[in-house]
Write a structure and sequence with these properties.
Layout: H1 16-66, H2 77-80, E1 93-95, E2 101-105, E3 112-114
Antiparallel strand pairs: 1-2, 2-3
Length: 140
């Protein structure tokens, strides 16, 4: 009796279903990785804008403590430059989610980000469209 002819030979490859499952899992992992990367980028922009607003707020409060008769509405970024840490040459800015340059409006308290240069005018920039969620609303 020949045993080798009655046994089924072992296959050494992958089936189409196995390969399809592996490809699907890899695609799902890549998609979630791209999503997380985008969310982290948005978080970094928000963190940078928050730091800019905190810096502007501290400079604003320090300036007003040194100059108590100066009205808040007359503040400009140029007046606050000496009160910023590390003595920068220009007032710090931030980037919007669309990569536009944002400036801190410093003649209001608390300061907020605007889409105009100069830091004393412009429309309020808030990507969440609400002032109660603390997203880019630092100081409120």
């Amino acid at each position: 009796m020949n045993l080798t002819s009655s046994t089924k030979p072992q296959s050494r490859g992958f089936t189409l279903i196995e390969m399809s499952i592996v490809i699907f899992v890899l695609l799902a992992m890549m998609t979630s990785g791209f999503y997380v990367n985008n969310v982290v980028g948005e978080w970094k922009l928000g963190r940078d804008a928050s730091e800019t607003l905190r810096t502007a707020y501290v400079a604003q409060r320090t300036y007003l403590a040194d100059n108590p008769t100066v009205p808040l509405t007359s503040l400009t970024p140029a007046l606050l430059l000496p009160y910023l840490p590390n003595n920068p040459a220009t007032f710090p800015t931030a980037k919007s989610l669309q990569s536009a340059t944002l400036c801190a409006r410093v003649n209001v308290s608390p300061p907020y980000m605007t889409n105009s240069s100069g830091g004393i005018s412009g429309t309020r920039y808030d990507p969440s469209k609400t002032t109660t969620d603390s997203l880019w609303d630092v100081g409120e």
